[in-house]
Design a protein that fits this description.
Blueprint lengths: L1 E2 L14 H27 L5 H28 L23 E2 L2 E2 L6 E7 L4 H19 L4 E7 L12 H13 L4 H10 L12 H8 L7 H10 L3 H6 L8 E2 L1 E4 L2 E2 L7 H13 L16
Parallel strand pairs: 4-5
Antiparallel strand pairs: 1-6, 2-3, 3-5, 4-7, 7-8
Length: 293
């Protein structure tokens, strides 16, 4: 769940790689042995002879060298901080070939039940909805023509410190893909390449352009220009969720808000089943009242 209120960061964990543990043991053993050698040399040198003093200082030099070499070895075995991200991966799922897609509506546009999702591409709960909920909802409800799924932009993560633009830029890129009827394919790529942490460069312009090259049939020159120009930036930033909703994802079934953030899958399906069992309205349900998104 992501809110437009500042949120904390998850801890990175404390597991130490096995190679680091082995390296640490080796360094401790080396240090212990060097210490013993220094003690023996000091004992032999207690008589005050010049030769013994030379021997003592030689051992000290060996100890210092051992510590420096061991430290360098440990550093080489420890995980180095990531300075960049790998190339984007393909989405782990694909849409059924016969699934209707129109703009940012997935499924039969005349379906009597509408599932609206207000989402931020950096929001972890939104990513979970896309990766875990969507495939099952599509199979059970959308592909059958009973429900249509409508995506809406609702950028909230960018406003959290440190303030950034990755959510906006990802949403702009998705709309650039939408110009060529490829919104949903690009939407999947973004969410399947969502990092564990927000604001780490996963949606840099370079990576967004790389994702465009992974969408079959997308004319990249047109797409690239749209992304670089920020063609839809203002539209993305002006898009809002219905009044009273300040957390993503905002999930609605036939205009009914299901709760703050990512509600359970069972909550979503229960709402869909209830809406499907209700008497059919005279006209298809409209999306919740909000500014265009």
């Amino acid at each position: 769940m992501t809110s437009n209120r500042p949120a904390g960061r998850p801890s990175s964990g404390s597991n130490v790689p096995p190679t680091s543990r082995r390296s640490a043991r080796q360094q401790r053993l080396a240090n212990r042995e060097a210490g013993r050698a220094m003690t023996r040399a000091s004992t032999r040198g207690s008589g005050g002879g010049g030769t013994n003093s030379l021997l003592l200082w030689s051992v000290v030099a060996v100890v210092i060298a051992a510590v420096l070499v061991g430290s360098a070895f440990l550093m080489s075995q420890s995980p180095s901080p990531k300075t960049g991200l790998t190339s984007p991966n393909p989405a782990a799922v694909t849409f059924p070939a016969n699934l209707a897609m129109s703009d940012r509506t997935l499924g039969n546009p005349n379906a009597t039940v509408t599932l609206d999702v207000y989402s931020d591409f950096q929001c972890p709960g939104c990513g979970q909805f896309a990766r875990e909920y969507e495939p099952k909802l599509i199979d059970t409800y959308v592909q059958t023509g009973k429900v249509k799924l409508v995506y809406h932009d609702f950028v909230v993560v960018d406003s959290h410190p440190p303030v950034g633009n990755e959510s906006r830029d990802a949403a702009n890129a998705a709309l650039c893909a939408n110009d060529q009827g490829k919104f949903w394919q690009y939407h999947e790529l973004i969410f399947w390449n969502q990092p564990a942490s927000e604001k780490v460069g996963a949606y840099s312009q370079a990576r967004l352009l790389d994702m465009g090259r992974m969408v079959p049939g997308l004319e990249t020159n047109k797409f690239d220009s749209c992304v670089k120009d920020g063609t839809y930036n203002s539209q993305v930033l002006s898009a809002k969720a219905p009044a009273g909703v300040d957390t993503t994802p905002g999930i609605f079934v036939n205009n009914k808000h299901l709760g703050d953030g990512l509600v359970s899958y069972e909550t979503v399906t229960a709402a869909l089943d209830g809406a499907l069992a209700a008497p059919s309205p005279s006209a298809p349900a409209a999306s919740p009242s909000a500014k265009p998104s």
